Amino acid sequence: VYLYNSPFQALMAVTLAVYGDRPEAGPLMNFTADFWKNRILPVWRQILGTSGGWHEGGEYVGIGIGQAVYQLPAMWRSATGEDFFDEAGIRGFLDFLVYRTRPDGTHMRWGDGTHHDRMVPDRVPLAIELRHAAAYSLNGCPKRIAPTAWPWGPLPDRSLCDPNAIERMPLTRYFDGIGLLVARSGWDATATYLTFKAGDNYWSHVHLDQGAFTIYKGGALAIDSGIYGGGGGYGSDHHLNYSYQTVAHNVVTVTSPADTVPKPVREGPPRVIANDGGQRRVGSGWGVESAPLDLAEWQRKKEIYHTGSMLNLVTEPDLIVAVADLAPAYTNRLSGKGTFSHRERRVEAYVRTLGFDPRDEVVVIHDRVMATHPEFPKKWLIHSLERPQIRGSAFTIHVWPSESPKRSGGSLHGTVLLPKEPYLNPLGGRGFEFFVDGVNYDNEGAVEELVKRRGDVEAGAWRIALSPTMAAREHRFLVVLLPKTSKDENQFHIRLVEEGSRYGAEIVGPTRTTVWWFDPAHDGPVVDVTE
Question: How many Å apart are CA 55 and CA 286, to the nearest integer?
């Protein structure tokens, strides 16, 4: 972020300006060209992938890559004739800006970020360059006639103003560089909007949330909880003990009571961090190591930064299935050796399947989790803004209509099929909003004050912890989630089905019946569809 805030743009501009005019500019140009082509661009290619995703959250997309992705290639091409705008990742960055935008017009919540409505400076000039009408028109077309980028930039192009262009884009997009799947049932304000993350760690402003999903319909239903800084700044108790850690996300935790190694500090006593049962502590803020300088260093340390991968992905127009290996996020060969970062060895295998039927708007979550020891408790988590209602093995989460923030209201209905005798524990409310390892990390009330002051903050206050009632090394979770609006009266019939060694979820919906079959012999489902 700091590199792209302005320093490298300034270096490139000055170097290009003086090169050829002064002899001492030769070495400066050598340095700039090497840094640009052999350091920055390889990292962009890794993270942007073929589809343009970026790993950082909130406003960091705008103040970092979002004011470099056009400016740097434009300056370089103007001076040298070498064109990088045809690279798939740079072209796809505009798609990422479109798909990260929720039905309410704000940006998806993930990673570090305080603001989720901030502009991306290079969006308009890059959209003009690549003739991307949907990105150009996102949240309104430019009205002011002025250069659209520093230092010169193109003027606005009214021929690209097409508010309906977004409706011609596919409803699902997978951003392969960061392992992010974004899917929706439509482009209207009442659509179901879904995110699912399973990829590697790129150090800066990301959370320990591989495998986490979010669901939005009429409002934020299954949320990425906590808030960046939590009113106490970067590295506050709320940030490091809760919002940064896995416990604040919709994924599974596996807890060892021995996982208590304190956080390393430069001076003073070690800092105790809550044992949330979550993923390895990798990235900025943990005081373990500095950011990798380039792709080569990241690759040398891939054992550390490899935190997940997509094993299989199907993105048909009427059926989405993603199967992800999440075990590396919890365990690597350094785990269990008494380190703060790599933690105790607790997870031997973890494969999560996320399925989405956009036609009937059904989400299926299946988890196979194998712990190192059967006594390590496993908790399947889902977070919400409001208190969930629990009845037996079913639960409902509501988000109520409001004017500020603008939302129509919706609900999420969950049916737990596995484990067969589940324990659903609702945790939250005053004094327990961000409770983990015996402490409520609310920064002494600062988080609550921030939520009251800013209506767009979705810190949440409740979560459901779903647990099996019997101890075992391996457990399987199977949960069906139905997002609905307040006006939705569609009826569903959901039941567990078993056939020999196979088991699954039968979902009879308003337009069709799907059966999601799982087999202990392999990961990933077979989906039978009856129209």
Answer: 18
Q: Give, in degrees to the nearest 5, the angle at Cα 443 between 437 and 447.
A: 110
The series of mean pLDDT values per 10 residues for the chain, 531 residues long, is 77 94 94 95 97 95 93 95 97 98 96 93 97 96 92 92 97 98 97 98 96 98 94 92 98 98 92 98 93 95 98 97 98 97 98 98 98 98 98 97 91 98 97 98 95 92 98 98 89 97 97 97 96 93
Secondary-structure breakdown of the chain: helix, strand, coil percentages, each rounded to the nearest 5: 25, 30, 50
**Residues 388 and 462 sit within 8 Å (Cβ to Cβ):** yes
- State how far Cα 256 lies from the chain centre: 26
Q: Which of 60, 65, 32, 34 is nearest to 48 (CA)?
A: 65
Report d(CA 516, CA 495) in Å as an integer. Answer: 11
From residue 242, alpha-carbon distances to 49, 245, 266 in Å are 30, 5, 22
Three-class DSSP category at 435: strand
* pTM value > 0.85: yes
Residue 527 near residue 516, CB atoms below 8 Å? yes
Whole-angstrom distance, CA of residue 460 vs CA of residue 434: 9
419 prior amide bond cis, ω within 30: yes
State the SS3 of 121-135. Answer: CCHHHHHHHHCCHHH
Count of all residues that appear for the chain in the document? 531
